[in-house]
Amino acid sequence: MSSQQEMLRRTTEFNTPQQDQHEEVVYRSDGVVYNHADFSYDPNNPGIVVAQGIEKRLWPTEERLLKLFIAKPNEIIKPNELKKDDGQEASGVYVRFFVFSLRKKLEPDPKHPVVIINNQGLGYFLRDKNQLLEENKTVSPYRSVENTSDKLLGQNLKVIHPDFTYDGYDRKVVVDGQATRLTRREDDLLRVFLTYPNRMFRSSELNDMVFRDNYSDYISKLIKALRSKVERDSANPTVIINFPRAGYFLKDNGEMRIIRMEDEPQV
How many C-beta atoms lie closer than 10 Å to residue 43's C-beta? Predict the structure, then answer.
């Protein structure tokens, strides 16, 4: 066995999925899911990356490498910035091995990489055309919520969003002065989003909270129907946002208000 083959065998053994005792690299962690055009990564769900719509297991070294790339998008990561499990600096062969294995999980086509780029032998960088979720720091990561309707927004409330007004009692929305009545399912879905604004939901979670049954294929159709009623331009949605392979959330910049019907001033 050649020395390079032995090196790859040892690195594979060192990095089979297990608890990583090495000190974590410092990286941006403000409670968001990092959504790149080609993958999404949730720091609060370690060891997992979602790419091509599939959850893929990360080895500890792959995850450390991904965190380095996320911390410095479009900046070259040199081999000595990646540490091995024992804390020692990684060699060029070691880094190339894990860049190759990480590419197989992130890239649409690993043979023609568009995510992790080699900059003419100087190092590697994460290519980001402003598509990594940076500005939306209020979006919460995936976390469990109670699947009970009593935890959702009450029916006797009104919500004033910059783009629409929601009347829970009459089950209708008003956009630019035009009122539209919601179906029961659309109303349930909207109340989920309004109860947890800026919270990213997987399709499976929305399915559990709205249908409570095996109707996951209907969620995308239901969101499309709801968008047609709450968005000013459903072809270019600005209210209910979707990050491919990550989920949906209702965007609120802090301007949304919830008022009780009985507190509404009489005209």
Answer: 18
